[in-house]
Design brief:
Blueprint lengths: L1 E13 L12 E13 L11 H15 L17 H16 L6 E10 L2 E5 L2
Antiparallel strand pairs: 1-2, 2-3, 3-4
């Protein structure tokens, strides 16, 4: 089994609904997103997936979230913009574009809100 990992960052604000603490107030993070892709076979170039393709697919999602107030955009206008829900959102959106063209599986998406706190989503 082969595994490829790619990370990118974005900045956004949010306010956690029903939190009952400081994070219920508007605040922001420099989020870090890590995606892990796995598969059993390499292509004719010896690649599981091209890093540039993964970065491009991630960039499409990040461009929607970067420097916005997450609570104002779908699905976070309804769904709480927690790190857990952001990780799931990335997983679902990335799965649509990434695995359609190559025989790989998106293993997990991890979202860091800080250098020491993260949430991971796996299907």
């Amino acid at each position: 089994m082969f595994e490829v990992t790619v990370e990118q960052t974005f900045a956004a604000g949010h306010a956690l609904r029903n939190y009952k603490g400081k994070c219920e107030n508007v605040h922001g993070h420099n989020f870090r997103v890590q995606v892990v892709i796995e598969g059993e076979k390499l292509d004719e170039a010896g690649l599981l997936v091209d890093f540039l393709d993964v970065k491009s697919a991630m960039r499409t999602i990040i461009d929607r979230l970067d420097h916005v107030f997450l609570n104002d955009i779908s699905p976070f206008d309804v769904k709480n913009p927690s790190a857990e829900n952001i990780a799931e959102y990335f997983y679902v959106e990335l799965s649509k574009s990434l695995t359609a063209s190559v025989p790989v599986r998106l293993r997990e998406v991890k979202i860091w809100e800080t250098d020491i706190q993260s949430a991971t989503f796996r299907a």
